[in-house]
Every structure is written in structure tokens, then in C-alpha cells.
Design a protein that fits this description.
Blueprint lengths: L3 H11 L3 E5 L5 E4 L1 H6 L12 H5 L2 H10 L4 E8 L3 E9 L5 E7 L1 H40 L5 H33 L6 E4 H19 L2 E5 L8 E4 L1 H18 L5 E9 L2 E8 L33 H11 L3 E6 L5 E8 L3
Parallel strand pairs: 7-9
Antiparallel strand pairs: 1-2, 1-5, 3-4, 4-5, 6-8, 9-10, 10-12, 11-12
Helix pairs in contact: 5-6, 6-9, 7-8, 8-9
Bound molecules: adenosine-5'-diphosphate.
Adenosine-5'-diphosphate binds next to helix 8 and helix 9.
């Protein structure tokens, strides 16, 4: 009669997820069928070997060893046979570590194809669109000097505005696919937050004036330099995207505030506006690409629904978090938390 343990190991062998149990000396004591397939080993050959021999990668050994003291860790590994595996390790009740392996080779391949497709498409679209835009602007200028019905001038002006939106959308698509592909290529440096915020504010000042909205910075006292590890250009882009939204959605005469607060071990940068706010039901979804709360909002003209998706990608790549706090009708506060240096 098979006992419970036999049953369990038979179930484990049916799983597509690899399962490995490691003891305190980092020796493999149990491994299911999928784990052997994923690590390209004959059935049963993982058992009795060290973690290093099983994975042939010292980073995996490090995260598993770290889990012996508790907690859980995760990493992605280029494994034998051109496979891409996600490795999740957590301390087992018996004192060792339980490791779950997920094969994401196909998923990553499809993600790469999608990103390349978007990249190619936006490249191809950008040139003709830019030409159309330039020509429309020129026609509009020329119409200004001619005696033509105002209806005609208005129609060309509408074409000009709409092509502007298309150009912006294509540029943001290109940005997003580049950021998705290049999150590993961040130029990391110690970035001082004060100058970063000032730079972003300077870039948005003209737009703020046009919107009739006041821009306010609430920075830590002078001389208190706060530094994060990051890519200054990308982090600046996050701030610009948030400020752009804050200004875009604010009624004239209101304020948009950038607040910087160290909350050890994180730095919280908030962009706070007094606009319409974001309904609770949409607060998670607005960070998805192309998501817009309400296409008919009066001041929202011309958005593409990509700004926040780009911001989230950049913040994620920095090991940070981004979220929004808002009571609908009472403004929104977009917050970015980044790990501080030292
Ligand atoms: P968009 O180009 O449409 O602004 P985003 O990704 O930047 O794209 O924002 C997605 C949606 O989130 C917006 O269309 C809007 O509905 C909502 N949103 C973003 N920022 C704000 C804000 N400060 N106040 C109110 N709604 C906002």
C-alpha cells in the first residue's frame, strides 16, 4: 500500500513546476520530475548533489543560503539548454529550503517578439507622421496669409492637432518598448534628489504657465543632500511625466506640489495636485499602458495613456514603488518610493 509521502511525490512529479528540497548543508534531498527536466538531468540525478552542482551558478547558491535564516528570495536564471528559469526559494518548515522553478523561456521569447514588433512599428510610423505634421504646419501658415474660408483653416488646424497626438503616441510607444528592453541598461549613479527635482520643475515651468497652475517645490532644508542610486535621466522622466499629468488635470489657479521626504530607508517623492483625482476603482489600473480613467475629461486632451506605464517601468527597474493616493474630487497624490543610499 502506498503511503501519503508516496502519493505526494507522485503528485509532485505531475507538476510542470520544478520542486527541489535542500537541507541545511545545501544538499539536494528531493527533486521532482520537472526539476530534472528543467536543469537537464537524468531522472534522480539531482539528489545527493550540492546546490552548486545542481544549478552551476553561485547566485542561486547565495539566495538559497540566505533563505536558511528565513524569508524568501527570487531570481531569474539563464539555465542549461537555453532555458530561462525563475527560481523562488523559501525556508522550509523542516529547516532546509524549498525551491520552486518555473520555466519562462517561452514567455520571455514572446515578450521579446512583442517588444521588437512595437519598436519596429513605431519606427516605421514615426517618419511619415513627422512629415505629415510638418506639412500640415506649413499649410496652416500659408493659409494664414490667404483669403480662404475660416472653416478650411479650422479643419487643417484639427488635422495638425490630431497628427500632433499621433506623433506623441508613437514617441511614447517607442519610449516604452525601449524602456522595457533596456531596464537592465540603466546608467546607475549616485543621484542627488534636489537638483533632479529642480531640473524637472524647470522643464515644466512653461507648461505650468500655459495652464495657469502654480508649481511649488517642498524640498528638505538646504545642505541636506539626499541621494538615491539611479539613472538621473530616467528618474527625471518619471518626475516630468507625473508633473505633466498634475498640470494637465488641474484647473487654472490651483497648485501642483512636489514634496521630497526621506522616510528611512526610503525616499518618498510625491507629486500632489488639486485636480479631479482618481477613482478608487482605477487607482491600480492607471499604471497599465493605454489606460485612461475617462476619455471625456475636459482638461485631459491629448493623453496617450502611456506616461504612467513608462513611469512604473522605470521605478520598478530602480527597485522602487509607485502608487497613487486620491479621494475622487479632491486631487491626487502620486508617490514614488526609492531606496536611499547610505
Ligand atoms: P495620459 O497620457 O492619458 O495622461 P497616463 O498614463 O499619464 O496617460 O495617465 C493615465 C490616466 O490616469 C490618465 O488618462 C488619467 O485618466 C489618469 N491620471 C493620471 N494622472 C492624473 C492626475 N494627476 N489626476 C487625475 N487623473 C490622472
Amino acid at each position: 500500500m502506498p503511503d501519503d509521502a508516496d502519493d505526494l511525490s507522485r503528485v509532485a512529479d505531475q507538476l510542470l513546476l520544478g520542486l527541489i528540497r535542500v537541507d541545511r548543508r545545501l544538499t539536494v534531498v528531493d527533486a521532482n520530475h520537472a526539476a530534472h527536466l528543467q536543469l537537464v538531468r537524468a531522472p534522480g540525478r539531482l539528489i545527493g548533489h550540492s546546490v552548486m552542482e545542481a544549478f552551476l551558478d553561485h547566485r542561486v547558491e547565495e539566495i538559497i543560503a540566505a533563505c536558511l535564516d528565513g524569508g524568501s528570495r527570487q531570481m531569474e536564471l539563464d539555465a542549461a539548454g537555453d532555458r530561462r528559469l525563475i527560481i523562488r526559494a523559501r525556508r522550509a518548515g523542516t529547516g532546509g529550503v524549498l525551491v520552486v522553478l518555473e520555466d519562462v523561456t517561452e514567455l520571455r521569447r514572446l515578450q521579446r517578439i512583442r517588444a521588437e514588433f512595437i519598436d519596429n512599428l513605431s519606427h516605421e510610423l514615426r517618419t511619415p507622421l513627422t512629415t505629415i505634421r510638418l506639412l500640415t504646419e506649413r499649410v496652416l501658415d500659408e493659409l494664414g496669409t490667404l483669403d480662404v474660408p475660416s472653416r478650411l483653416r479650422e479643419r487643417v488646424a484639427t488635422i495638425d492637432v490630431e497628427t500632433g497626438h499621433l506623433v506623441q503616441m508613437v514617441n511614447e510607444l517607442l519610449d516604452l518598448s525601449r524602456i522595457e528592453q533596456a531596464t537592465t541598461q540603466l546608467h546607475l549613479d549616485d543621484v542627488e534628489i534636489g537638483p533632479l527635482v529642480q531640473g524637472a520643475l524647470a522643464r515644466m515651468r512653461a507648461f505650468a504657465e500655459r495652464q495657469g497652475v502654480f508649481l511649488v517645490a517642498e524640498l528638505p532644508p538646504q545642505g541636506q543632500a539626499i541621494t538615491v542610486q539611479g539613472d538621473a535621466e530616467r528618474l527625471g522622466q518619471v518626475l516630468v511625466n507625473l508633473l505633466h499629468n498634475g498640470l494637465k488635470f488641474s484647473p487654472p489657479g490651483r497648485r501642483v506640489v512636489v514634496r521630497v521626504e526621506p522616510v528611512d530607508p526610503e525616499l518618498i517623492v510625491s507629486v500632489i495636485d488639486e485636480g479631479p483625482g482618481v477613482p478608487k476603482a482605477d487607482q491600480q489600473r492607471i499604471f497599465e499602458r493605454f489606460y485612461k480613467v475617462d476619455r471625456a475629461r475636459p482638461r485631459a486632451g491629448g493623453g496617450t495613456g502611456l506616461g504612467l506605464a513608462i513611469a512604473r517601468h522605470i521605478v520598478d527597474a530602480h527597485g522602487g514603488r509607485i502608487w497613487v493616493e486620491s479621494d475622487e474630487g479632491h486631487g491626487a497624490s502620486f508617490r514614488v518610493a526609492l531606496p536611499m543610499v547610505g
